[in-house]
Design a protein that fits this description.
disordered N terminus, 45% strand, 711 residues
Length: 711
């Protein structure tokens, strides 16, 4: 009997392809002959002596006329010609013959067949395929169907005219850098991105179980209520899907998971810590799945054919798959994603590329890899040119993308749909990036996404992206791309360090799920045009630490949420408009303010605080003024005001002004009486003034001007 491949011998993609051959085949095995040779000499017992003592013929076709008895061995020099690579050692079978397939089993004389003796590795030349002139479809089907074949190699270019669906596990393909084409391939069905040349799909059984949770399930839970745990078995795989929320595809849980423990009669533990809390009123449907496992596809060049969903072609698709890896797949002119995945768990995609897909506007087309309901994925060292997306995650989690780069990237190499993705990490990549941007039907939500050392022309995480972490993300505007140079985040636990954008920073708020503050540290941003720094949606506090903002005049803090600058520098730039603020509290602590003209423009109560060694340099215009109708509190403390302009001008409304411990060199303070009526207060004391021109009301119970050093 042919041995099977123990799962515990499986390694990562870069080590696996050849080791799969050795995992269960220490000696030679006859392809597809487990039943035929059960009573004969061991099928996998061919030795070097067998080969030396065997008869020989020139070609495979010569076997058909050769007189032989059962178990005779014949060495064949070639398939069509001696030395063409299609020869090998064959054994004669005269009883219970397997079906002839033209490669591993070929016809003999008087009803006998000849079975190719091999160690688990076969290439297409064994079927007489020596190039793309002969379609390789029949050979591919025969090789994949033969459980004794664990490694398939290509030594010539190949052409395929059919779209193949396989459920085979434990097999590796090494195309040797040869070209795969699809000249004359059959049409695909409508809107079917799984109509690949090779589509590996597990079996979804009829066994299904749905149960209401009946209890709240917290974030990061791996023990889930299932109603009746007798439906489950440890080690088995299940497609777990929570019932939808309001959106058509809005589900927090859609993953292919393995049960690792039966906890009790109503709970099981799975190999996944969920990323979103689930309420007691929710329910989960579990479908028993027999996934394809341990498939490796390597070293393939692919030239697509066709320009639409029916005629387009692509090489690979995986669905309900575990540990199915690809590496060194280089595609050109595909329609659907070069590598399509759905319901995949624990996989790698490495050193792949896509150039010039035939469409970047059709929904779902033009991707290098699309990953839907995927878990524990690793995508690395890959590239795209003029593609739509290099890497797309939908409802996926715990994945890492590193050293991937997209040029001609206006469509966005790195994206997520926003169907509750979580715990995704990107390191050392380049190309336009957007998260959770596909719309409300998917939920528009993602959480705990981390991006490090990324360079792009556009970065957007504007919707319900919670606990975003950006480190050393550089956004550089590109001529001709509308909106480039922009970094746009959601003020829900976002934390940025060492980041920059050449054209604008936009902060909006679509969610409030995080418990951590929104902090931007050691970063720099420029504003090429007037616009909002925060808009009216922002109610959460936003803090800038040691950060540089350039060209802020004409920019507005449009949200009521508190905004704090601690350290760093703000420069006004060339625009004459003010740096408007509607924030309930704008605090500048130890900040250099160069030519910045702050205008408190809110209709509700506001506070503006300039403290902690801040330095405001004003040469023209007014450093701080008001145009809003709300009560205004101004606090100036331990700061320096220079430049000769008007530092503060408050002439209307209800105001509470306090300046202590400050130095004013030249310039002017305009605090006229009409701005400090009975409901207002003014304390200007303990300051040092050199050549300062004051316009102030007379001292009164609510106006104190004494105790200053005036030079």
């Amino acid at each position: 009997m042919t041995d099977t491949i123990p799962q515990d011998t499986v390694h990562r993609a870069e080590r696996r392809s050849r080791r799969l051959v050795l995992a269960g085949f220490g000696a030679a095995a006859v392809g597809g002959l487990a039943a035929a040779v059960a009573t004969a000499a061991p099928a996998n017992a061919a030795t070097g002596s067998d080969a030396r003592n065997a008869a020989s013929v020139a070609t495979v076709s010569a076997l058909a006329s050769l007189t032989a008895k059962a178990d005779d061995m014949v060495a064949v020099s070639g398939y069509a010609h001696p030395g063409d690579g299609g020869g090998g050692l064959f054994r004669c079978i005269t009883a219970d013959q397997p079906a002839v397939n033209g490669g591993t089993v070929v016809p003999g004389r008087s009803g006998a067949v000849w079975a190719r003796v091999h160690s688990g590795t076969i290439d297409f030349r064994a079927f007489g395929i020596f190039g793309p002139e002969t379609p390789a479809d029949e050979a591919l089907d025969a090789l994949v169907a033969d459980q004794a074949v664990v490694r398939i190699e290509a030594h010539t270019d190949l052409n395929f005219v059919r779209r193949h669906k396989f459920s085979r596990s434990g097999i590796a393909f090494d195309f040797g850098g040869r070209l795969m084409t699809t000249e004359g391939i059959e049409k695909a069905g409508k809107d079917d991105p799984f109509a690949a040349v090779m589509y590996f799909c597990g079996e979804v059984t009829a066994e299904e179980h749905t149960a209401a949770l009946g209890e709240g399930v917290p974030d990061l839970a791996d023990v889930l209520p299932v109603g009746d745990s007798s439906f489950f078995a440890v080690g088995e795989w299940y497609a777990a899907e929570v019932n939808a929320l309001s959106g058509r595809w809005e589900r927090e849980l859609q993953k292919l998971v393995q049960v690792t423990q039966i906890v009790d009669g109503s709970h099981v533990r799975i190999n996944y810590q969920i990323g979103w809390p689930l309420g007691a009123d929710r329910s989960i449907t579990w479908r028993h799945v027999k996934p394809v496992q341990n498939v490796v596809v390597s070293n393939l060049r692919f030239q697509g054919k066709g320009t639409d969903e029916y005629t387009g072609s692509h090489p690979l698709a995986f669905e309900y798959a575990v540990r199915c890896d690809v590496d060194h797949i280089d595609g050109t002119a595909t329609f659907w994603p070069l590598i399509m995945r759905r319901w995949n768990t624990s996989y790698t995609t490495e050193s792949c590329s896509l150039k010039n897909p035939t469409s970047v506007t059709w929904g779902g087309a033009g991707y290098m890899t699309q990953q839907i309901y995927c878990l524990y994925g690793y995508v690395a060292n890959s590239r795209t040119s003029n593609a739509r997306h290099l890497n797309d995650f939908t409802a996926s989690a715990y994945c890492l993308v590193e050293n991937c780069h997209g040029d001609g990237d206006d469509q966005g190499p790195f994206v997520t749909h926003g169907q509750y993705e979580h715990d995704l990490t990107y390191v050392g990549n380049s190309g336009l990036m957007t998260f959770a941007n596909s719309g409300a039907p998917w939920g528009s939500a993602a959480k705990r996404i981390t991006v490090r050392k990324h360079v792009c022309s556009w970065f957007v995480a504007r919707v319900k992206v919670t606990d975003l972490t950006l480190e050393d993300v550089r956004v550089i505007g590109k001529k001709g791309l509308n909106g480039s140079g922009m970094l746009w985040i959601n003020a829900d636990g976002a934390q940025l360090r060492g980041c920059s954008a050449t054209d604008t920073l936009i902060i909006t708020q679509s969610s409030s799920a995080s418990k951590r503050p929104t902090v931007i540290e050691a970063s720099d941003f420029a504003f090429a045009a007037a616009g909002d720094l925060t808009n009216a949606s922002v109610s959460a506090p936003v803090t800038f630490v040691d950060t540089v903002l350039s060209g802020v005049n004409g920019v507005r803090i449009g949200g009521a949420g508190p905004v704090t600058f601690r350290g760093g520098r703000l420069s006004g730039g060339d625009r004459d408009a003010a740096f408007g603020t509607l924030s309930a509290r704008l605090r500048l602590d130890g900040v250099d303010l160069d030519g910045v003209r702050i205008d408190a423009a809110g209709k509700d109560a506001q506070a503006v605080e300039i403290l902690g060694g801040s330095a405001l340099a004003t040469t023209k215009g007014t450093g701080l003024s008001r145009s809003g109708a709300g009560d205004l509190t101004v606090v100036l403390g331990d700061s320096t005001f220079t430049g000769g302009g008007t530092y503060v001008s408050i002439g209307a409304g209800v105001n509470h002004y306090r300046a202590t411990g400050c130095r004013f060199d030249g310039g002017a303070l305009e605090l006229p009486a009409q701005g400090f009526g009975a409901k207002s207060t003014l304390l200007h004391s303990g300051n040092v003034e050199t050549g300062l021109k004051r316009t102030v009301p007379a001292e009164a119970a609510n106006v104190v001007l004494s105790g200053n050093v005036v030079v």
